[in-house]
Design brief:
The structure holds two protein chains of two kinds. Chain A is mainly beta. Chain A has a single domain (2-218), classed as Porin (Beta Barrel), CATH 2.40.160.20. Chain A has two helices and eleven strands. Chain A has helices at residues 2-11, 152-157; strands at 32-41, 44-55, 59-69, 78-91, 94-108, 112-129, 132-150, 164-166, 170-183, 187-198, 209-218. In chain A, strands 1-2-3-4-5-6-7-9-10-11 form a ten-stranded antiparallel barrel. By secondary structure, chain B is α/β, with parallel strands linked by helices. In chain B, 34% of the residues lie in helices and 14% in strands. Chain B contains ten helices and eight strands. In chain B, strand 5, helix 3 and strand 6 (155-159) form a beta-alpha-beta unit. In chain B, helix 2 (108-122) crosses helix 3. The chains are: A mainly beta, B alpha/beta. At the A-B interface, strand 5, strand 6, strand 7, helix 2 and strand 8 of A face helix 1, helix 5 and helix 6 of B.
Chain lengths: 219, 319
């Protein structure tokens, strides 16, 4: 099933993180968006999401999305996010925005089943024109509360291993760039590239990079 | 708010724990559990045991990794019944031995000196014959020791050393751990990084154990039993090898070692095979290459019934 989703993603060139939104190309009549991302984000993942634009004093998007990594076991691993993304201030064509997301994610292997609640905060400063944007981003993803349920060889080798809730269990910074190109009235292609580093100077991720292509469609 | 409410509700259901707390996710080491068998080598406390008559020829069993432990090699204890004095130890920062800072692994010589210390700790007589049996990295370390102290060692049993140079080792690792980008194993390996990060040994050792969940590519049904991985030891050693590959060359003086070597490779580990075994064993003057049938890389555990008689015959032959 994951392969099918990946294939669909490939056909459409890929889709995006809603955070890649080009604020300058927003139409107040287009309040609903769907987006699809594909790329590397702690694994080769595909992400499907929905965004709704609130007409507040600042431009604000509420988004919900879910991503799954590749592999034969569908939904043994996933990440779901509920995000609020809002502009903070603008100066000419430059806009500063911020987002805060609540994350629920799961990871399962033959050794452990992990359920985690986390949070992500990101600041984005970019140059926005109606047909494109380019921006720098800086974020922090905290794995706040994590439930561990052990099984298999891990349990056999260490029967006293403790199952339960652990807080907190990790955190990673991310630094990168993002860009988008608006196509026609409804489509926006985007790209995010960057690197990650573990908090407190701990060992970084095995592949401490991310790169995600995306497509956003205005309904 | 809904999210925060859910989060609080889940966490409040039970007492939250900390991954750093000793004994929750990985076993205690000799530093926290005084009931574990321990020896002191220099300023490092090692988890170690010996079996058999201390006056018999000593066979020191050396585990792989770096960062694994000797639990999967305990079948070698059978040789205590064959009049050998069996010595096992977890290397620094590995298994249940003391954890050390990263800079305590920046020379291979530390491991060689430590092995020398273990031998001297258990040796009961200067004339006692010393034999080494190493598995994987342990076989590399055994060879490194022989490369420096060829006169000290009477016999050498090597079970699939990755290589005796970094070039050989790197080639073997790349074959045995080849990851395909769409595989479940690959993503299991990297997806974990967003859930767990840390700087303490308890967390890092636990995370290393979780990272072994992927499919085994070395012909074994699963991992051999282990107590506790040593993540810092493993990471620092890999970094050392990549930054200073010249330190991983244990062949420079092997021509001084003229005793027969038993070199075992497994039938089912496709990443190894006869060709790699011939390449790696080439520097030895007198070597017996043996394929161990019906098992993979973890032959001391899963292939012991086939390995044991071969090792026993070899040891009896050279003494």
């Amino acid at each position: 099933m994951k392969y099918i989703i990946t294939f669909i993603g490939c056909l459409s060139l890929s889709f995006t993180f809603a955070q890649n939104i080009n604020w300058s190309s927003q139409d107040q009549k287009q309040n609903n968006f769907i987006y699809l991302n594909k790329g590397f984000d702690y694994g080769l993942t595909v992400q499907l999401g929905y965004a709704y634009q609130l007409n507040l004093f600042n431009q604000t998007l509420i988004t919900a999305d879910i991503s799954v990594p590749m592999g034969k076991d569908f939904f043994d691993d996933y990440k779901g996010r509920l995000t609020m993304h809002s502009t903070i201030f603008s100066f000419g064509d430059f806009t500063m925005s911020g987002k805060i997301a609540g994350i629920a994610r799961r990871y399962e292997t033959k050794l452990v089943r992990i359920n985690n609640f986390g949070a992500e905060m990101t600041a984005i400063l970019g140059y926005y024109k109606p047909k494109f944007h380019i921006a720098a981003e800086f974020g922090f993803d905290k794995a706040i509360s994590t439930h561990l349920k052990h099984q298999g060889l891990l349990k056999e080798n260490f029967p006293e291993i403790t199952d339960g809730w652990f807080v907190p269990t990790g955190g990673n910074f991310n630094y990168g760039i993002q860009a988008s190109k608006t196509i026609g009235q409804r489509f926006e292609l985007s790209l995010r590239l960057g690197t990650t580093s573990a908090e407190k100077g701990g060992p970084d991720a095995l592949l401490p990079v991310y790169g995600v292509f995306g497509l956003l469609f205005r309904l | 708010m809904l999210y925060l409410g859910l989060l609080l509700a889940f966490v409040s259901c039970s007492e939250p724990l900390e991954m750093e707390s000793p004994g929750l996710l990985v076993p205690l080491t000799v530093m926290e559990d005084s009931s574990l068998p321990t020896i002191q080598i220099g300023d490092v406390r090692l988890h170690s045991e010996a079996f058999g008559n201390p006056a018999d020829p000593m066979l020191v069993v050396i585990h792989g990794g770096p960062g694994a432990d000797y639990r999967g090699l305990l079948n070698f204890k059978d040789l205590a019944e064959d009049s050998f004095y069996l010595v096992f130890y977890d290397q620094r920062g590995s298994g249940l031995s003391q954890r050390l800072a990263k800079d305590r692994y920046d020379e291979v010589q530390f491991f060689i000196d430590e092995l020398d210390g273990v031998i001297n700790h258990y040796r009961t007589d200067p004339a006692q014959k010393i034999l080494l049996a190493g598995h994987s990295w342990g076989a590399m370390l055994a060879t490194a020791y022989v490369n420096q102290k060829s006169d000290e060692i009477t016999g050498l049993v090597l079970a699939e050393p990755g290589g005796l140079t970094w070039e050989q080792t790197e080639a073997y690792i790349s074959r045995s751990r080849a990851l395909k980008i769409f595989e479940e194993t690959t993503n299991d390996f990297v997806y974990l990084d967003q859930f767990i990060t840390g700087t303490d040994h308890n967390t890092l050792d636990y995370k290393m154990a979780l990272s072994t969940a992927g499919d085994i590519k070395t012909g074994d049904p699963t991992l051999a039993p282990y107590w506790r991985f040593g993540a810092v030891c493993n990471m620092a050693s890999i970094e050392l090898a990549m930054d200073q590959p010249e330190q991983i060359n244990f062949t420079t003086n092997l021509n001084a070692f003229n005793k027969k070597v038993l070199f075992a490779y497994s039938e089912l580990n496709e990443a190894y095979g006869l060709e790699h075994a011939q390449l790696v064993s080439e520097p030895f003057q007198d070597v017996e290459l043996v394929e161990i049938a019906g098992c993979g890389h973890e032959m001391p555990h899963f292939g012991w019934n086939n390995l044991y008689p071969i090792v026993k015959n070899y040891l009896n032959e050279i003494l």
